[in-house]
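Case study: AGAP009284-PA-like protein.
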Amino acid sequence: MFPAIVDAVSDAVDFVDCLPTAPHIHNTAKMKRYFLLQHNDLFPCMCACTGIFDYLAVYAYQVTNGKVWPLVNCLCIFTAVLSSFLDNVTTVLLMTPVTIRLCEVMELNPVPVLMSMVIYSNVGGTLTPVGDPPNVIIASNSYIAKNGVNFATFTLHMAIPIFFVMITTYFQLRMKFKNINDLRFSEPQDVQEIRHEIAVWQRAAASLSSYSKDEDLVRETLLKKVNRLSRSLKKKLVSGSVPVESYKATLEEMKRKYPIRSKTLLVKSAITLAFVITFFFLHSAPDIQKLSLGWTALLGALLLLILADREDIESVIARVEWSTLLFFAALFILMEALAELGLIDWIGKQTENVILSVSEESRLAVAILIILWVSAFASAFVDNIPLTTMMVKIAIGLAENETLDLPLQPLVWALALGACLGGNGTLIGASANVVCAGVAEQHGYRFTFIEYFKVGFPVMVGSVIVSTIYLMFAHVVFTWH
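Here is what the predicted structure looks like once written out:
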């Protein structure tokens, strides 16, 4: 068996060495890694099979003429809009690989671009009840739904603060990366590619044990490849790197590589998305729309399955994140157990005592500040899903307390803004952050907790300050609720 493995490894090494180099790629390293990774990616939703996400990224490159900041802004806005109506984890999962590809073409360091993109994803996901898991938990609560919080109302109240948050986020990121060199590599891109490839082959060699002579032969084959790449790297450092090709040649090559793969499926997906969004907004008219948000989404999924007419339905069902659904089910059980033990009531009682300690006209402002800032800072370091599940009960308890006499909706908006925007604070604050970092590392680009913290935490604080100002004016001064 192992001689066959040795031959296979040798053939693979020879094969990737013979791969042709595209006009905009300095060496075959990019194509090798992209070739291997693209065929191992599993797209979590059917619309991704159309190639629309890749196409949007190439379109962004086209409309911005390959200019750095316009391209970054375009990618971030695309991601924010998509995250408003699709799960932001799915959006980031699909946008990250092609964003890395664009950055490689433009000789940009993908890490700061990806951090900016995932920040905008979390901001965009705050806009609607279906954009981020905390919003889903809030909007699906029966008590909150009965008190007038529907899809249209939620989106309307979130639109204004999210608009200002996006503006302040843009200026914060521009100040953070005001030097354009901060978005570029510290050394030429082709040198970085060779270093990444050397690391890949070294990890492959190190993963083999020393239990047999055959495994030693495999390791020697891999190390020979490492030595060849190391010699190539030394030559490159001495001679310098090859300049990038023109914008037009790069654009044509990317259009050829990333077309719309299935226009028919794209049309069917667009019809289904329009159907679901229409019914989401009809949810605000109870006499017309009797279905909950969950049933509406489920009907949309069934409609797409019918329109797509897929024979391999098992492969589609296999893409459903059953582990996530089980996690939610177990989480709700855990929260009910904590409620039965009295923890939720105790936390609510402590919050109530703080609010009662201030004058009556200041109680709403204090309640908003507590819910907003506590949920934001807690979400930065604790997963925002269990936090939101707990905070929803606390917000409802405060609204039901006749002594406090607090309206429910301002507390709901404060919780949604805090839980979603707080996820930008750290790398573990939101699932989208972790997914983006994981996909980036698979492509050879790693960013650490501290690197993300330096960018994300100031943005999170700025976003929460903007949200505080909005909530104070809208609900304390003008009593919009």
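For the exam, be able to explain this: Residues 449-477 form the longest helix (29 residues).
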